[in-house]
Recover the amino acids of this structure.
């Protein structure tokens, strides 16, 4: 299968983008293709990489806002999560994929439950995804054994789908919910299988304080001391990292997903120390976190809020300029996940969005990049190609009305079961 | 002229909204009307009130981001502003109105230059606006005389248009750009004419420090000491207000426009102390500020960022919950400006938007209000009625393509003159 995007603007020049299979095969020449997309007046950008989310939590969008973290978790989220079925996760993930397609995200790094059901949804929706079954053992050996068994089984099932664009990942939730033994076992599994590990790290001050009380060291140091950190680890948040921890992350190659909207909404109390992490060359990307704490999956918004938060937190408007926010949102995330995406170039994965700039909020065009980061929202995306397949044209996605109806029904039913 | 919005949801109930002239005349009964709008499946909300903006600065969108405030002003903004013509302001304001219509803002409080040209744009576009010619005398008596003459002349010209929905306002820029004599003269004029006053207050720490150095007191105290503060004053920002100043604002009835996006982008260093101001019952609303420091005029985004910033700054996720952000964005602003808008009710001004919730980011609907504040962007607005006139239906606005082209041309030309 081949696609030609005709007369589209790529980094300032109007050109032709030719896709063969799931890769960009040529840029510049007009060629025959199975599908021809008229890109006239539009701009091609790399699809976004959402480096940390819990996709099926779209079902809990607006279900408990403006609460403190423990009230939110204990009275709102855990009660509904306890009732979650694979079918719920399937429809929640379908809804998340639909929202991501409509806002320009081609790849997402997900951690949740019943991830084989999530994989089925992703397979149907056409996105690229890294899927981790969340592991939470609460220091209970029996529970740990069961959770690891389930996680391994789901890992194998997703692997068994043999789809390039769907990758199973190991998902220990966090140091405060997963025992040292389980973390060590997961490290072993990752070393054996070559899998990525997706976890949460240093999100709240309480996590740091408890870790220091229990282990004598801060969270990143604790993980490093047990040999857990490496370049296959993607750690979400990193709000409370201190300079010594940043150095550890840089040295071990650990990746960090900055989730500014969620951090502000849940009031984690401190912004990820971006400037120091950039200085130390930590590999970073941006994540929306789940829709329960954001409450959308729009990476355009996340780019802007990342830039705003870092400027605010550093008392310096020059920190995290538009170009860096943009690169974090696509190339940074792609690098973190080890995929050839996040750039439009020959031999790269064909994960591309087309934006139509003829809109009031994108006028004038003194600086397109500034417009993407500071002025746009996800609705500026007109067309999406992921893995060489057209998933949206003219903002139309196949099956949209059905997904909205089914996901809404599942969400209503889920909270009514409480 | 009459409008009937049929079968539309208002605060949870499906009903009929009947508009006669520029007011909501009846809610509940189906009636004959000149224009019938099918509201089935849609939700009617009060249009937003943008309590602080510089509309024509849309021309400078993306023209100098990620710079410190003085570099930004001195190398980017002031050089282009020095070249501004009435025609530039006319097209910049047209563009701003177009963007506001497409994102749900029915009323805006504007301060800029050549405001008679802005008024012409607003008249054509159909929005409700409060327009202040910015007064900047830099403590120069000759300049002050000239500026006040110009401002008064433009005030009279706008008044002479005799349009209910366009109100002239007095616009002393800020205490650091306007002399005490001019402030006193403006206070006199306001007392005589009943005009509102639109100014900036306590945006940066430098403003506070300089004021203390020069006058011995903080900015709000200084303004109060010269008899300037009253309930006709709308002060933008208020980032650095201290408790004694908050008490003064509450006592004098001074209104404050919170502009969280601009404050974060320019790194003003501190968030407006919302919780204390709410406690003191200060009348507050939300503003986008100009597109040069935001870089859009989307009040949906501003509601979300206001809630995020306040939670972050107060270290408390319960501060500024969705309902308060929503009310600040419409009723708060309307109250600050003294207009019968910001609520959908009989005898209120017919400033209404219709939102279509059948979208992925607004699914499920556990809590609509949460969806408007935390999940939506301006593009969810399908229909807008302002002052009893339909300005947008199905997201189509008359003359859109022409405005985009002309405003883009004017903006290009403006920077090329440098």
């Amino acid at each position: 299968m081949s696609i030609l995007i005709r007369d589209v603007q790529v980094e300032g020049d109007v050109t032709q983008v030719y896709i063969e299979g799931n890769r960009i095969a040529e840029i510049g020449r007009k060629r025959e293709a199975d599908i021809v997309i008229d890109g006239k007046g539009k701009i091609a950008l790399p699809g976004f990489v959402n480096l940390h989310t819990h996709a099926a939590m779209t079902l809990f969008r607006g279900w408990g806002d403006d609460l403190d973290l423990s009230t939110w978790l204990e009275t709102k989220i855990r009660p509904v999560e306890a009732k979650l079925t694979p079918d719920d996760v399937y429809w929640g993930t379908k809804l998340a994929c639909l929202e991501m397609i409509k806002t320009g995200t081609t790849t997402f790094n997900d951690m949740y439950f019943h991830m084989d059901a999530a994989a089925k949804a992703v397979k149907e929706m056409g996105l690229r995804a890294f899927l981790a079954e969340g592991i939470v053992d609460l220091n209970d050996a029996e529970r740990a054994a069961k959770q690891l068994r389930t996680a391994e089984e789901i890992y194998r099932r997703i692997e068994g789908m043999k789809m390039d664009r769907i990758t199973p990942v190991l998902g220990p939730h966090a140091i405060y919910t997963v025992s040292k033994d389980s973390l060590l076992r997961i490290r072993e599994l990752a070393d054996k299988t070559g899998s990525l590990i997706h976890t949460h790290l240093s999100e709240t001050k309480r996590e740091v304080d408890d870790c220091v009380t229990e282990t004598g060291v801060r969270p990143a140091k604790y993980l490093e001391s047990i040999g857990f950190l490496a370049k296959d680890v993607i750690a979400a948040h990193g709000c409370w990292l201190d300079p010594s921890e940043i150095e550890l992350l840089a040295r071990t190659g650990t990746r960090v997903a900055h989730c500014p909207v969620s951090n502000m909404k849940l009031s984690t109390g401190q912004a990820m120390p971006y400037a120091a992490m950039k200085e130390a060359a930590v590999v970073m990307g941006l994540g929306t976190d789940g829709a329960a704490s954001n409450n959308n999956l729009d990476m355009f918004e996340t780019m802007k809020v990342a830039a705003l938060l870092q400027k605010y937190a550093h008392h310096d408007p020059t920190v995290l300029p538009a170009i860096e926010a943009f690169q974090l949102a696509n190339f940074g995330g792609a690098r973190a996940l080890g995929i050839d995406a996040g750039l439009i170039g020959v031999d790269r994965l064909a994960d591309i969005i087309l934006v139509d700039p003829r809109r009031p909020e994108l006028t004038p065009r003194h600086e397109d990049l500034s417009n993407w980061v500071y002025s746009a929202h996800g609705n500026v995306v007109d067309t999406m190609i992921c893995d060489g397949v057209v998933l949206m044209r003219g903002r139309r996605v196949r099956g949209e009305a059905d997904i909205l109806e089914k996901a809404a029904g599942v969400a209503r039913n889920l909270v009514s079961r409480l």
